[in-house]
Amino acid sequence: MTTTTTETTAADTTPRLVPLPHSAARVLIALGAIGTIASTFMSWTWTSDFPGDLTVYGYPAGLQVLALTGGLLTLLLGLTLWDVPGLRWANPARHAAPLALAAASAFAVCWFTGIAIAVDLGGFVNLDPGAYVAMAASLVALLGTLALPTPGGTWRDYLKKAENIPPAADLAPWAQRLAVTAATALALIIFTYGIGIPDEESETFIGFLLLVVLGTWALFAAGLFDRFSALNARHKGFAATLAFLAAAVFPLTQSDDHNANIGVNILIVGTVALGLNVVVGLTGLLDLGYAAFLGVGTYAAALVSGSEFSRFSGVQFPFWAAALTGMAASLIFGVLIGAPTLRLRGDYLAIVTLGFGEIFRITVNSLDGASGPNITNGPNGIARIPDIEIFGLNLGNAHQIGPFTIGRFANYFLLMLVITAIVVLIFNRASDSRIGRSWIAIREDETAATAMGINGFRVKLIAFALGASLAGLAGTVSAHVGYSVNPAPYQFAGSVPPNSAFLLAAVVLGGMGTVNGPILGATLLYLIPEKLTFLQKYQLLAFGIALVLLMRFRPEGIIANRRRQLEFHDNDPLDVPEQRLPDSTVGATKAGA
Amino acid sequence: MTTATTTATVLEASGVTMRFGGLTAVRSVDLTVNTGEIVGLIGPNGAGKTTFFNCLTGLYVPTEGKVSYKGTVLPPKPHLVTKAGIARTFQNIRLFANMTVLENVLVGRHTRTKEGLWSALLRGPGFRKAEATSRERAMELLEFIGLAHKADHLSRNLPYGEQRKLEIARALASEPGLLLLDEPTAGMNPQETRATEELVFAIRDKGIAVLVIEHDMRFIFNLCDRVAVLVQGEKLIEGTSDVVQGDDRVIAAYLGEPFEGAPEDTALDAVEAAEAQAADADADADTDTAEAPAAEAQTADAHTAEGDTK
Question: Which phi and psi angles does A555 have, rounded to 5°?
């Protein structure tokens, strides 16, 4: 990019989707991005009936904020085409894909809004000029990006990550930490914004999802995620502390305790999914009855909580003792189920765990005094579970810290955050050790693992027991958060979150064997149905579709395992041997010498 | 392992028989391996070599017979066999594909370390020390086989020959007294085969006895102090390279029986000499010739493989 002449000749020969000269493309992108940004300060519709009140001139609101963000992202990436100093980091490979994806995010938000206004209010007549400006400008920007040259010239090339991303400049350590901090803050802002969208504004949330998906994809295509994970790896402790702090700040940003309730539930399912990740992701044991372990922990905590409906209503354990009780109960249950079932492999194990999961629920239902001894109160469950008290602090009451009010759910959020941190620590330490390696070895090839001296049964039982007790730990908090427990949610598949299929989907969607994956997966799977109320009926269908698409396009999950990221030689054909030799066709592979 | 005292018996298999239903894959095989020895095990496809290996390492429970290592009878559990001191590689490479090269070797150290879940969670000084020692030891082994520079690569991204070497390193990590190699040069070119030969000698020099299955006759006869021939599950003959090479029954097993009414004595001898030479020199092509008469034996072999995957 030194002289314009070489640039245009190069651009003319390289393939692209929209045949326009390079200079025209750049101008279109800039105009489109600026137009999109400007349009968000205008009125898009005449009535405030449409969610988010898009009627105001002067400042953006609701979906306009999202369109503004998309426009700014396009502009930021577009400016790298002019080599604006100080912005080169945003698109280091000077690739078309990030630009196209960013423009697509703005385009998607603008056109979605326009069409949603027309559908909701009945006709395009309800659109104000601002909306037309937005739609036109975002289309112009998108066309401009598609006129940029790419290696292949097909639409797929506008979705791919850039190749040959130049190595990052060596920043000073403080600058690296600053970058990590900024990225963490950005993640917090995005999460807080998403969770803060009112439940009835489904349109805004869909726009949010469109922007987040395409925007993150754009940053991923620019190679910024790789750089960020490299920085994260270099400042591991710092990044982890920061993430923890950012999560701890979250309840302070919420004036509404309802959002903190969503937050604490996300943490609970995320933690349980992380426990399941030990079993599924690390050890490779498909457990379809995992919700039962959560149920055991929850019931154990409820029984010793001092609730008047509990069989042992006189007993009220302090929280730490209740937590240990819940863990111990789940551990015992895990060993009891694991001992007979873990001798099976593959599909058989999945079927048997599915059976045991159902046995738990049905047993709890039957222990009601009529069909069996009265322990769990049957389908009525145990209600009126008192709040936890820690150090004389009742988590049921709102507390005041400086200018911030910490409500009931915010209290539980902070408690659960500590527990999540402990579980993350346990997961990390266990997976990076002799025992963790033997789990992974079992997952990779059980026969070879036993031939290397690993006692398969014992090691699998440890994984099972650890996973169970982590679920039990999370369950002890969930019993108190939800005021009451009943057996209904602890089934294989259902529309209420803590069911086995949900947890498994969270692990698979997020990325098996990683720490962030299951938490991210649980966040998405919990938050999306919560915000898109019309989807709740079709939740299982949506799960299925999401998983099918995932398996087709990104089988390793949203966050790829560290091991998978090590596939830096996959593009080198000489270096890639045949995939593992097929085990059953010995005749073909037995060629001597 | 520095038990290189004159000639102690490392492995003693006596009367090992393995039946799958009506099929007898291995019939009453005796075999001993002494310290400092490299013993070869050859035979046509489907002769039961791998099945015999699986019996030795506890992957199969032999129907009859017993296997003892340095005088103690081995329990038929693979992990206990490895713990006792017998390590093995597989005919079809069975690395942990999504683990790095170093991690693969670290898994091999499993039986020589004992840090459990608690010490992993608490990360005491004992854990750190054990972990550091394991890593050091694993890196030494990677140096030994020449893969230290690829320690952080995923094992499935290694070229074929290096995967074979890595499997050997992983087996050596368990500090065995006896190493069982199942076709270590299958699919290798002549240079790689020579390199493997050197590697096996180096392993022997470390004081580790080696029992090796191979089809490459030149490799076997260069390498082995003794060679045992397995045909249709039975041990045909055992002896030095020369004895085995000159044995009529071995040649018949590989090349087929002379037909009825074949030219007598002198002519036959000439033919056999030529064939033996062909089998010897034409090591690269030997499976082509061996596979033809042993075609029906392959079904039995497929059976073995099936048992293997279970």
Answer: -60, -20
